[in-house]
Write a structure and sequence with these properties.
Elements lengths: L1 H18 L17 E10 L13 E12 L2 E10 L14 E9 L2 E6 L11 H5 L2 H8 L3 E7 L7 E13 L2 E13 L3 E5 L2 E20 L2 E17 L3 E7 L2 E3 L15 E3 L1 E6 L4 E2 L1 E3 L10 E2 L10 E8 L3 E8 L5 E10 L2 E8 L6 E11 L2 E11 L2
Antiparallel strand pairs: 1-2, 1-15, 1-16, 2-3, 3-4, 4-5, 5-6, 7-8, 8-10, 9-10, 10-11, 11-12, 12-15, 13-14, 17-22, 18-19, 19-22, 20-21, 20-23, 23-24
Length: about 375
Amino acid sequence: MKQNRIVFLCISLLGFLFSQESFAQPATSFFPTTQNFRWDYVYTPLDTNGNPIQTPIIPRSTSFFVGSNTVGGRNAQAVTSVNNFSEFGDSLFLPSFEDTSYYSLTGDSAGLYLNPLSIIGEFGDSAEAAQIDSLAGFLNSFTGWYFLYRFNATQNTDYVVIRRDTTVTIDSTAVPLRFEVTGRRLANDSLTTPFGKFDTRKFVVTYTLGYRLQIFSTTTIFPLVQFRDSTWIAQNRWIVRQYLPPSRIPAVENIPIEIEGLPTIAIPGRILDLAEEPLSIQKVEKNVREPRGFELSQNYPNPFNPSTTIRFQLPFSSNTRLEVYDILGRKLSTLVNGYLQRGAYQIAFDASGLASGFYFYRIEATAGSSSFSATKKMMLIK
């Protein structure tokens, strides 16, 4: 039904924003300065009551700082993310993706680049979606930079990131809507993790799609969909924790209009935590011969407990992926995923959360018409 598509496209716009995911200190001091920096996150799914959901395999996500580009007229830091959520189907309300987000660090603010029309193709026939001209134009109006995190904002005071009003027609009924994103900087928070304590800047970003009721000069917003995303950001490490509590659609009761096709849905929440100390892929500069061919070396030490170092060489600048698998062929970790310059590299693999046994690491590298892949076995003994 057309009205269902309108509702779900609007919901998806909200999801797109919060999944892309200050005190008087420059925003650049919070983002890593080293290219090929890697974050490993663990997701804790929450049920609709906010209770953790136990899963046989811990959902994980890995992100990589792959370099700088010019996007939307600004210098942007590109962060590519991958996950293993596809193993869980749709049961955890966790979207599977391999995507790149762009951040701009300007003064005391950090912005995210949004291109919302890219989500339309996710909802079936794009030609059908394109027929919703008013909504497509509304979505297109959001393309650009949005500064979600303002490190010098007054604490506990909301600031408006974006506010847009539109009217969509559903079965000849005009429905006035408002889409709004607001941010709030909370008091600095000392966050304890398994690998240390971080002094963090904490933000709450609220995404709202609401029914807009205008009575004379007074506008009242009744939220149809609303998400509140809490984010902890640490210096030189970027995002170390995010918390999205459960929510529901509609977000409030007693909406002053009947919208046919508006679903009643309870949406689970989730917590994202940094799983281990962030690290960077190190380019080995000294005492290494100029690489003449692709090479994947045996990890050292081997056997190991709990960490080991993996080295590889690239004779050309290459799109490179390095992954770790268990003996059943299940992917456990993505160590490298991005474009690397020619050279020799090393990266540490921490198996603290794994049982003793054999594991495999595999590299795939592509440079123009040249490609290389290799797999090696390593042994963890605890």
